[in-house]
Amino acid sequence: MTMSRAMKLTRILLPLVVLAGCASATPTPIPSIQAIEGKWAGTITRGAGSQDFYYLTVHPDGSIVTQWGTNWKWGNITLDGGQGSFELMDRVTGTVRYYAGPSGRSLELKPEFEDWSATVTPVK
C-alpha cells in the first residue's frame, strides 16, 4: 500500500472509529481547562462530508490555535458548569463536547452557524 493510499484510508477510518465511540457515549462535564489542555489531532468534516486533518492546541489560559489545510485560527475555550464553548477570531462560536472513557478521550467542536464539525483525540 502506498503512503498516499494509507493516508486516504486513515482519513476515512479515523473519524469513523472516533465517532462510533462518541455516538454511544454521553459527553463528560469538563472540570477545568487543564483537563483538555494540550495538543489534539483528528479530522474536520465540512458541508457535504469533505474531510481534512484538524489540529487543535489548548493552552492553560483557555486560548486555542486550530489548523486544517492552509487555515490557521486563534480563539478561546470557556467553561460554564462543565459545559464548553469556543469562539474563534472570526467570531465563529460553538460548543465543545468532551468524551472520556475506557477507550480514551476526545473532543468534538461544533459551530452554531457554520456547516462543519471537528473531532480530535490527544496527541501522544
What report would you give on this structure?
With 124 residues, this protein is an alpha+beta fold. Helix content is 17%, strand content 52%. The chain contains one helix and eight strands; from the N terminus they run H-E-E-E-E-E-E-E-E. An eight-stranded antiparallel beta barrel has the order 1-2-3-4-5-6-7-8. Strand 4 (71-80) and strand 5 form a beta hairpin. The chain is globular, with a radius of gyration of 14 Å.
Radius of gyration in whole Å, from Cα?
A: 14 Å
Question: Strand share of the residues?
Answer: over 45%
- Provide a count of the helices: 1
What is the CA-CA span between the terminal residues?
Answer: 25 Å
The major beta sheet can be summarized as: 8 strands, antiparallel, barrel
Q: Give the fraction of residues assigned to helices.
A: 10-25%
Number of strands: 8
How are the strands ordered across the major sheet?
1-2-3-4-5-6-7-8
Number of domains: 1
Q: The CATH topology is what? A: Lipocalin
Give the SSE layout.
Elements: H1 3-23, E1 38-46, E2 50-58, E3 63-68, E4 71-80, E5 83-88, E6 93-101, E7 104-111, E8 116-122
Antiparallel strand pairs: 1-2, 1-8, 2-3, 3-4, 4-5, 5-6, 6-7, 7-8
How would you concisely characterize the structure shown here?
By secondary structure, this protein is an alpha+beta fold. It has one helix at 3-23, and strands spanning 38-46, 50-58, 63-68, 71-80, 83-88, 93-101, 104-111, 116-122.
What labels describe this entry?
124 residues, alpha+beta, Lipocalin, eight-stranded antiparallel beta barrel, 1 helix, globular
